[in-house]
Amino acid sequence: MVTVNDVNQAREQIADIIHETPILTSKELSSLCGNQLFLKSEHLQKTGSFKIRGATNKVKHAVKDGATFITAASSGNHGQAVAYIANKLNVPATIVVPEDATISKLNAIRGYNGEIEECGTTSAERIPRAKELAEEKNGVFIPPYDDPYIIAGQGTVGLEIMEQLEEVDVVVAPVGGGGLISGILTAIKETKPSIKIIGAEPETAQDTYLSLKKGKITSIPATQTIADGLRSSQPGDMTFPIVQKYLDDLVLVSEAEIQQALFFVLERMKQLIEPSSAVGIAAAMFDKLGVREKRVACVISGGNVDVRKLEQLLP
Ligand SMILES: *Cc1c(COP(=O)(O)O)cnc(C)c1O
């Protein structure tokens, strides 16, 4: 299992690449939520999401071990992050994307000199292809969450929160495959276990919620949510035991609540965040956290949206 030591090592590995992102606050948001809210702003991170943390940790290790080629399967934030860091380290990367990927995302990958290969429309088609490409060319496939280096890298968000907000009572973060939350859990629960950690998922993508309830990894059919970073169908083999061991609570939010949260942050705080990032704020706004008058850190996980389609994300 990943330990807080691994997270500390990851922090050293990635320090020259990532930003220590700011904490934003809004009196209006806090009074609306009945808690003091602090937004850990990973939408202002390099490549627009926290994914660069885990990707940098993993790719640096792979390169140190002699990798001369990198692959990943993603059209989203993970693909952008892997393309960025591979380019920075002068290692060629191929990102396997779905045939229906949006142009803006493909352009972002190309902007980082990533090679693009289209394959099917599901991750069940993409992942084997990306692994096969890696094998053919003596490269390394970089998974999106179920990997100790990825988990440790994402956990650096937790270290920064503890330093930036010494008095924090509660941390809320979105849950997709579980890399982000399990990294944060490892960093915080092995340092200051009194801090409460709450995960948030869309009602329509509640695979981790169901898995926790059943006490084992449980998969759900393909999900439909505007939170496209949280469309996982089941938690990871490596992430789920960490979630089971440490997570205090997991709450669900509706699509309409996600839209309201995104709208509030855009209109009042002038911050463009993506729907996957808005689930934690939605949980706080619609009183699902079960706490009052507490200092709550909410992880804003990313800000990559196709601006031309922004209207579809608003209430
Ligand atoms: C990937 C991603 C998530 C989910 O992270 P996991 O590690 O898969 O749980 C949440 N928000 C954004 C913006 C993401 O890109």
Automatic annotation (TrEMBL):
Keywords carried by this UniProt record: Magnesium, Pyridoxal phosphate
Top-rank taxon: Bacteria
InterPro entries, alphabetized: Ser/Thr_deHydtase_PyrdxlP-BS, TrpB-like_PALP, TrpB-like_PALP_sf
Tryptophan synthase beta chain-like PALP domain segment(s): 16-302
Cofactors: Ca(2+); Mg(2+); pyridoxal 5'-phosphate; Mn(2+)
Pfam families per UniProt: PALP
Protein name per Swiss-Prot or TrEMBL: Threonine/serine dehydratase
Source organism of the structure: Virgibacillus kekensis
